[in-house]
Amino acid sequence: PKEIFLKDYKLPDYYFEAVDLKFSLGEEKTIVSSKITVSPKAEGCSAPLVLDGCDLKLVSVKVNSNELKEENFHLDLHHLTLPSPPSGKFTLEIVNEIYPQKNTSLEGLFKSSGNFCTQCEAEGFRKITFYQDRPDIMAKYTCRIEADKSLYPVLLSNGNLIEQGDFEGGRHYALWEDPFKKPCYLFALVAGHLESRDDTFITRSGRKVSLRIWTPVQDLPKTVHAMYSLKAAMKWDENVFGLEYDLDLFNIVAVPDFDMGAMENKSLNIFNSKLVLASPETATDADYAAILGVIGHEYFHNWTGNRVTCRDWFQLSLKEGLTVFRDQEFSSDMGSRTVKRIADVSRLRNFQFPQDAGPMAHPVRPHSYIKMDNFYTVTVYEKGAEVVRMYKTLLGSQGFRKGMDLYFKRHDGQAVTCEDFFAAMRDANDADFSNFLFWYSQAGTPHLKVTSSYNAEARTYSLKFSQEVPPTPGQPVKEPMFIPVAIGLLYSNGKDMPLSSVYHDGKLESVAVNDQPVYTTVLRVTKKEEEFVFPDISERPVPSLFRGYSAPIRLGSDLNDSDLFFLLAHDSDEFNRWEAGQVLARNLMLSLVADFQHNKPLVLNPQFVHGIKSILCDSSLDKEFIAKAITLPGEGEIMDMMKVADPDAVHAVRSFIRKQLASELKEEFLITVKDNKSTEQYVFNHPNMARRALKNIALGYLASLEDPELAKLALHEYKTATNMTEQFAALEALAQNPGKARDDVLADFYSSWLDDFLVVNKWFALQAMSDIPGNVENVQNLLKHPAFDLRNPNKVHSLILGFCRSPVNFHAKDGSGYRFLGEMVVQLDKLNPQVASRMVSAFSRWRRYDETRQSLAKAQLEMILSSNGLSENVFEIASKSLA
Ligand code: B3K
Ligand code: ZN
Known about the structure:
Elements: E1 4-5, E2 14-24, E3 30-40, E4 49-52, E5 57-63, E6 66-67, E7 74-75, E8 79-82, E9 90-98, E10 108-112, E11 115-119, E12 139-148, E13 154-157, E14 160-166, E15 171-182, E16 189-192, E17 195-202, E18 208-215, H1 224-241, E19 249-255, E20 262-263, E21 268-272, H2 285-300, E22 309-310, H3 316-334, H4 337-356, E23 368-369, H5 378-411, E24 415-416, H6 418-429, H7 438-441, E25 447-455, E26 460-468, E27 483-490, E28 501-504, E29 507-510, E30 521-525, E31 529-534, E32 542-544, E33 554-557, H8 561-570, H9 574-597, H10 606-616, H11 623-629, H12 635-640, H13 647-664, H14 666-675, H15 686-703, H16 708-720, H17 724-735, H18 740-753, H19 757-768, H20 775-783, H21 793-804, H22 807-810, H23 816-831, H24 833-840, H25 851-865, H26 872-882
Parallel strand pairs: 2-12, 18-19, 19-21, 22-24, 25-33
Antiparallel strand pairs: 1-23, 2-3, 3-9, 4-8, 5-6, 5-9, 7-8, 10-11, 11-16, 12-15, 13-16, 14-15, 17-18, 20-21, 25-26, 26-31, 27-30, 27-32, 28-29, 28-31
């Protein structure tokens, strides 16, 4: 397989101005015709024109209406080359056949539950027709679709419908025209038996936009929340960024077989059903929140991604990091900002940090790839969003908005790079961003150490920072990064100190805003070692560092437990209150893990129990915040901090603390469950979600105690629940402990919901993720369950990735978990390489474990690499994991 490098990027020799596509959809085959207006980059260009193509059967090629003879073009497995195209502008017409019914890769044109649909990002368009399949080729499209009318009454593509009609013999056609030029990865086509929920949105300049959400007819009632989310997103983008929708029609189609969450094709977003369909009875609060976020995300791409797109795929974070940041902000504004931030930071720590510390570590803008699909990662997306957030932290809301405005002013209709975004932010604000660009080019999570000292005599408080960016594959030595540190200082009474200036680099710098002192300021750490000294500090403060988590780094500070308990109780920055609790919990868990490994009895620090209790009982706090604050850091997060990850010890310790808290705070948890019961109908809003979240966490703690009375309580909650959020939480609570009660309730749940595939997926996932000993066997049996299907990515994710999320079972010392995954990867790779490569990633950190586990995991990676016909996708991850 060939590796592709950013440094090799070259402008194309030919541009495509306009593309007319014709699809004749059939049951045996689909015929695709394209007519492309080609114009050379420069007069007299004599370079060959190389088109990408994959799994296509070529029928004919014409240049300026003349059919080319075979000696005038060259065809190989991946390309169609015209060695000497005419000089000047010309038209190229190509006819080819494809076989969507046989396409299990879910890329290009394929069938999902009887309907045709497409997925072209990143490089799927080449599975539809021959084309320069790269995002810097932007053209205007028309698309004519012909199909059997009774099987496919609905025919959709990008842009506006300009013509439709019937043919004799039961076929019909539709002609679509997209007035905006776009790269081919945004092309989409849908043909099927679908119905739509219709609504309208009036933009602030008065454009009336028709909104349609398409699903099979029986699912239409479940699209209310998706429509609400879409309208909220449209309004929000106008209010916050001044960005309006630019066409008269916006379509969303929900399909059950889809590789990822959703795709932002121009005016025809295609979604995985699980991110569209919801009803209170079948979807949880988490599902509702995910739908809001992803509908927002795809809609926001219309500007950040579609109107301004990426020059090449290395720039993916230009659109993804920015759009994730935008959807995070949208969700924050629709719910609780602190809780959303906590959730996003947890995700970063649990998934991105491990990636950044492993063999697949890559910068936000990667330098090379074998398969681009392997780089739709938490680094490009979530760390990329943190990079965008840092601009906002440094510039403030208004400065950030100025930067965004300039970005659109300069680049609307263009395919650009991360530097272009950086330059817009800088130029709009006349800002000094020093070495900020390293965030795009250096991989690895920076470690920042902070030491503090107070000089009572001089009344100064000093903070010394030192940073280290760990080596990552291909980058042994790193430069220091530009790290914005949002900071406040607390008096011993818990109040914030006013800050007006700071000594830095031998100068006194003002931090006041409009001559007023501030309570939070942003320090700019840009060197390997750097000191900041605050003058006029009347008592030793407790520092609140990285308020709101102002940079994606690992922090080591000299705060002691009593400082942390103090911050947990008093910090005016709610995020940092949560953070202080997490640092305490992480330290506690790590020290208990060491005790466990040395066969010492486990004893829980009473001060910790007390801290949790006071949060739990503080009625002034937001309930969802409480729910987050009493949730222990995940097992992965703790393993990530160990020299040699020990899944058994971490699991034992986390379970021990949970049970200990449950038993010591049993009364408080019981009251919490009682006080937070649902009294009214399900409403998706913050206060109600917060109440359910808190109740469900409390129930989970209680049920961990394996006490028959408490199991009865959970069963009662299960039976009386009026919404999926509470029913599923009760099911999860009961399913923690093996035994008849668990088996019965799982069977009951399945028989109640067997007709709803999205609910059945939750049922698969719950069992797959279970920590009960020897669960691999249960998962193997579930593979044979009639509701399971290896061709459906959602089911594969639920069952197989779900299983890998249970550290004890996936990392079982007998190697059973690794063997299971190894076999699944090989099977899946034959069907869908993208899904298989996501699975194989679960092996990538095998070196983090003890020798026995290392050799077991390594053997599976070697087995996978030696299997016949391996895809490039899996090859890339498996080989880099072993390197
Ligand atoms: N842009 C798509 C992801 C495409 C994944 C290709 N393998 C969804 C999104 O980020 O909005
Ligand atoms: Zn996206």
